[in-house]
DNA sequence: AACGACACCAACCGCTCCGTG
DNA sequence: GCACGGAGCGGTTGGTGTCGT
């Protein structure tokens, strides 16, 4: 794109680094009221001294109501491994199959845990069966080797000759993915400006912050969203509280 | 208790994609 | 068709917590 591009924001005039609870509240409050049609102008309108990109990232990776916090379950990890085998480093693609998990989170988990785990297990059980050399001197090679093995296992489990998509309901784990995916439609609603629904379990820090001055109870982190429909009163209370916090 | 190594994760950076005029 | 701007994505970094010595 031709002449290069202007930076997304004036870095000398925006705050950087970790977000404070107050900033989080401002962002949540603004998005709940007005949505996020335009990330670039959002900081200005909401009174945040942040780059639009930073706001977007914070919202998507942390504040979004449907973000699931906490450790990945074994099933989720396995799913990530399999999806990575299919999609490669398309984290957003993988994330779309794991509701509540963000691309950033999946990426982190992959780099910190799963990749290592794969390399380790490839070292203990070399995939000699398919005549691929798994030299220890090249970790990426080892990883590739293992991926190949997983791929085989995966395609086998999905059933021979069938594509991933056409057989996903046959595999219990893929079935699980499907169940997750069913929530996607609901989750995507969150991005719509006119929606006024705030689940109470998205961010421990925020809720801890809120709890410190109010007794708004957050529901358990792993309880799913079915109970949320009756939370409208809670939402109003929450807004009132947030507004008072911001004053 | 102090220190270093390692692990984890939030956030940033820069690039690409896509819509619009 | 082209230029531009905004959004999204993936790679990387830096801060912080944890563990081992």
From TrEMBL:
Localization per record: Nucleus
Sorted UniProt keywords: DNA-binding, Nucleus
Keyword Nucleus: yes
Transmembrane spans: none
PROSITE patterns per UniProt: HTH_MYB, MYB_LIKE
InterPro entries membership: Homeodomain-like_sf, Myb_dom, Myb_TF_plants, SANT/Myb
HTH myb-type domain segment(s): 11-63, 64-118
Keyword Nucleus found: yes
CDD domains: SANT
Matching Pfam families: Myb_DNA-binding (PF00249)
Full protein name: Uncharacterized protein
């Amino acid at each position: 794109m031709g002449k290069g591009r202007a930076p997304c924001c004036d870095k000398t005039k925006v705050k950087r680094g970790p977000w404070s609870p107050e900033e989080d509240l401002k962002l949540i409050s603004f998005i709940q009221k007005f949505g996020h049609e335009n990330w670039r102008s959002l900081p200005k309108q909401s009174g945040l001294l942040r780059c639009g990109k930073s706001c977007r990232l914070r919202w998507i990776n942390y504040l979004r109501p449907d973000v699931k916090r906490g450790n990945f379950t074994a099933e989720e990890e396995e799913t990530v491994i399999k999806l990575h085998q299919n999609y490669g480093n398309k984290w957003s693609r993988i994330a779309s199959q794991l509701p509540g998990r963000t691309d950033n989170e999946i990426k982190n988990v992959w780099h910190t845990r799963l990749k290592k785990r794969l390399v380790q297990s490839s070292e203990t059980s070399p995939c000699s069966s398919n005549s691929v050399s798994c030299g220890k001197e090249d970790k990426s090679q080892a990883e590739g080797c293992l991926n190949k093995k997983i791929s085989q296992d995966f395609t086998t489990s999905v059933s021979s000759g069938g594509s991933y998509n056409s057989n996903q309901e046959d595999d219990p784990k893929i079935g699980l993915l499907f169940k997750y995916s069913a929530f996607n439609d609901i989750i995507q609603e969150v991005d719509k400006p006119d929606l006024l629904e705030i689940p109470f379990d998205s961010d421990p820090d925020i809720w801890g912050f809120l709890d410190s001055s109010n007794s708004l109870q957050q529901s358990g982190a792993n309880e799913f969203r079915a109970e949320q429909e009756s939370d409208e009163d809670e939402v109003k209370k929450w807004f009132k509280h947030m507004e008072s916090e911001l004053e």
